[in-house]
Amino acid sequence: MSDAHDSAADAPMFAAAAWRLTAFEADLTARVRELARTRFAPRAAEFDANATFPTANFADLRAHGLLGVCVPRAYGGLGADYRSYALAAAEIGRYCGATALTFNMHVCSCLWSGALADALEMSADQRSEHERRRARHYARIVHDGAIYAQPFSEGGSAAAGAVAFATVARRDGHGWRLRGRKIFASLSGHADYYGVLCTETVDDARLSRRHTLYVAVPAGADGVRIEGDWDPLGMRGTVSRTLVLDDVWVGDDEALMPSGLYYQAATRWPHMFLTLTPTYLGIAQAAFDFTVRYLRGEVPGQRGEKRRQVAVKQHAVATMRIMLEQTKALWFQAVSEACIDPSREQVSRAHCAQYAVMENANELCRQAIRTCGGQSMLKDLPLERLYRDSRCGALMLPWSADLCIERIGRDALYLEGEQDP
To answer: Which domain holds residue 36?
Structure first.
């Protein structure tokens, strides 16, 4: 099974001139696209079929210096900003969704502690401490090739930002003792460090989101274990088993952000939660790409003749193209607006982009299957996997499709601070 195809090269998802990309963005996306097209795509079906982690793809990312894509240049990384990374990640998602999604979990440890943290308010002491600590994390990534995961969900409302994380950290000497469990912990068993979001206990006060701690837990630390099986509908290569932290001690220097700074980031830099969308935008592009190649008779091993002359097929492809272009335009605008303290309109547009990408990716995959016909559902072709992977997007926290709809409607009808009598 393979997703390789005869095309010598695929056109960029976002052409540099048309979308006014920077030279850095154009170069980065071209490099990533070629790597993903030639190396990741041929392996994608195997990772999906066996529900195995894309270890070989991460080895390629490491060899090409891409594990440090969002590590600031001062620390030896490529220094990609938010939009540059999002554009590159979309190209990965186009060829292997599981790789793009797990790569995002790794990269966020650099984005959140890097570009996002630089924009946040810290005391001089906090800033100095953060600089020293993040240099330690970045060195692991750039020089040692370490992979960071980012377990988030706990099965309750914490991942959606409604309550404090149930995973707790209490001070113990020059560090913390962590207890809790994270479900859907992507990269479980394959990361070197888990960037755990937990709540630091403060005296006898109730757990508060304001006391959220973001700390790197070494995979080999005492009390860390991985539980459960992994046999889901889609995104099977993420290997998102349950991470258990049973009285795990980590030192102060493992903090990825100063204590409590995550809360400031979540409230002032909300676009940080939009980084799941590039994966699914790439899947949407892949569904359209496959449909065009299939109807043109360009898919290797394809059964039957060209079908492009049929009017109903042309109409279906046109409908898909319109939806894809609408989705890409909205998404590009949203990621271009990412900044600290965005306006209400910008936040609402980000929610709209999240919803549109996650729902339209699956709709485009559905239309692709209907347009290409029954043979496209065979597992030796990629479309049925794209469909299964795309269905997972609307469920992703903290901005699930349902939560986005709720927030978009509320923010349109209520001004800030308004309440009904």
So the answer is: 23-147
Whichever domain contains 57, its CATH number is 1.10.540.10
180, part of any domain: yes
How far apart (Å, rounded) are the C-alpha atoms in residues 332 and 349? 11
Contact, 134 vs 141, CB < 8 A?
no
Q: Over the stretch 221-277, which tens digit does the pLDDT of each residue have?
A: 999 999 999 999 999 999 999 999 999 999 999 999 998 899 999 999 999 999 999
Contact by Cβ (8 Å): 137, 113: yes
Cα angle 370, 374, 376; round to 5:
80
Q: Are 279 and 391 in contact (CB under 8 A)?
A: no
In a domain, 368, yes or no: yes
Phi-psi region at 187: left, alpha or beta (left = phi > 0; alpha = psi -120 to 50): left
Question: Which residues of 172-277 form beta strands (DSSP E)?
Answer: 175-182, 193-200, 212-218, 224-227, 242-251
User: What would the 3-class secondary structure string for 280-292 be?
Assistant: HHHHHHHHHHHHH
Q: Which helix (H) or strand (E) holds 384?
A: helix 383-391
Residues 73-129 have pLDDT tens digits of 999 999 999 999 999 999 999 999 999 999 999 999 999 999 999 999 999 999 999
In contact, 308 and 296? CB cutoff 8 Å: yes
SS3 label, residue 17: coil
Residues 137 and 219 in one domain: no
- CATH number of the domain encompassing residue 409: 1.20.140.10
How many domains is the chain built from? 3
What's the CA gap between 405 and 111, in Å, rounded? 27
| Residue with token string 């394959």 | 190
Question: Hunting for tokens 């095309």 — which residue is that?
Answer: 7
Residue 331's nearest CA partner among 10, 17, 13 is 13
pTM greater than 0.90 (yes/no): yes
Helix ranges (H only) for 183-274 are 261-268
- 275 and 332: one domain? yes
